[in-house]
Specification:
The structure holds 2 protein chains of 2 kinds. Chain A contains no helices and 11 strands. By secondary structure, chain A is mostly beta strands. In chain A, a hairpin with a 7-residue loop joins strand 9 and strand 10. Chain A starts with a strand and ends with a strand. Chain B has no helices and 11 strands. At the A-B interface, strand 4, strand 5 and strand 9 of A face strand 5 and strand 10 of B.
């Protein structure tokens, strides 16, 4: 069974700082890995998706990397802003017959202090 | 674009009552799913569907029923609500395997309290 862990559970940084969020998974036979953002009381918004054949994906100030051999993914946020404050979740899917399913981490709650 | 729409956003039930959470998507996605999100537990898959007429169980299916009569709709039924079903429920959808980019789209959530 795939297990996904995100450390730390919470992170507070001053505005403008670059930061890295970590995600680890136990089964390296993943189909893809996704990073989501969740604002309080809201649903999840997909930020980046990395296919198993890829090493990284970038969108604006966000860069996600994937290292299947070590079972790790990182989300790098450059020049953080107060608007980046949210909970960030990663989710990994396993390769298998039929429809693959995502296993979610419990998230890292990010606070960017002005 | 409406995306994934869930109703109701909030609901309070008494133990033993039944209700249906509605989910509709307008993206012609083949795959739809229901998750529940609880503090300290993360998101857990309840049921999913890979197309109209096809449903399957996820990690925590007990106490819930689903059906998929159309591509657009995937309702979640609570047969006899229990306090343990107090949670935030999310519906999510994506393309099927043949067109699958993998990206999962979520609704805004339905917050359910069972007294």
């Amino acid at each position: 069974k795939q297990e996904v862990t995100q450390i730390p559970a919470a992170l507070s940084v001053p505005e403008g700082e670059n930061l890295v969020l970590n995600c680890s998974f136990t089964d390296s036979a993943i189909y893809n890995l996704q990073w989501f953002r969740q604002d309080p009381g809201k649903g999840l918004t997909s930020l980046l998706l990395i296919q198993s054949s890829q090493r990284e994906q970038t969108s604006g100030r966000l860069n996600a990397s994937l290292d299947k051999s070590s079972g790790r993914s990182t989300l790098y946020i450059a020049a953080s802003q107060p608007g980046d404050s949210a909970t960030y979740l990663c989710a990994a899917s396993l390769v298998g017959a039929g429809s693959y399913q995502l296993t979610f981490g419990k998230g890292t709650k990010l606070s960017v202090i002005p | 674009n409406a995306g994934v729409t869930q109703t109701p956003k909030f609901q309070v039930l008494k133990t033993g009552q039944s209700m249906t959470l509605q989910c509709a998507q307008d993206m012609n996605h083949e795959y739809m799913s229901w998750y529940r999100q609880d503090p300290g537990m993360g998101l857990r898959l309840i049921h999913y569907s890979v197309g109209a007429g096809i449903t399957d169980q996820g990690e925590v299916p007990n106490g819930y029923n689903v059906s998929r009569s159309t591509t657009e709709d995937f309702p979640l039924r609570l047969l006899s609500a229990a306090p343990s079903q107090t949670s935030v429920y999310f519906c999510a959808s994506r393309w099927g395997q043949r067109r699958n980019t993998g990206e999962l789209f979520f609704g805004e959530g339905s917050r359910l309290t069972v007294l």
